[in-house]
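Record type: ASSEMBLY
Status: queued
Input:
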Amino acid sequence: AQSVTQLGSHVSVSEGALVLLRCNYSSSVPPYLFWYVQYPNQGLQLLLKYTTGATLVKGINGFEAEFKKSETSFHLTKPSAHMSDAAEYFCAVSAREEYNFNKFYFGSGTKLNVKP
Amino acid sequence: NAGVTQTPKFRVLKTGQSMTLLCAQDMNHEYMYWYRQDPGMGLRLIHYSVGEGTTAKGEVPDGYNVSRLKKQNFLLGLESAAPSQTSVYFCASSQTGSLTGELFFGEGSRLTVL
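Status: finished
Output:
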């Protein structure tokens, strides 16, 4: 079975500081990994995804994530936090289930707080 | 530029009442999904549909029913609401069922069952 673990339900950083949100997964090969962001009172939107190829993936708003197979990790980073980055972030992995249905497994989410 | 639209956005029910959440997408997507979001638990799949007229159970289907009579609409019904169904419900759609495909989400429907 597939699963996603996000370490830290709440992360707080100062504006301008490094953002690091952790995600570890368990998945059969190959893993397809995603980060989604949810701003207050909104639905989730795709931030970035890893499918194949380059292990460092760049997304919107200056975020990037690195797929590390040996560590089964897909941590999300941003060099300099901005107040507008305050949101909840979800890591997800997709896997093929029965009847050829591709299911997404979501982590429990990490709320990012950015302090002025 | 609507994307995925959910109605209603907020609803308060009493235990035992029924209601239907409507999801509409204008992107001609084949796949549609209903998730519930609870604190500390991320998103859990309730039901999904791989095309008009087809539906299937997800992780937590008990107490819910769905219908996909039209490609653009996916309805989630609660026949007899329970307090455990207090949650935020998200509808999503995707163009295909590809493993690498993106899910497009609605803004959510917040349901409180008293």
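Annotation: The interface with chain A takes residues 4, 40-45, 48, 50, 56, 58, 90, 92, 97-103, 105-108 of chain B (CB under 8 Å).
Annotation: Chain B has a mean pLDDT of 92.
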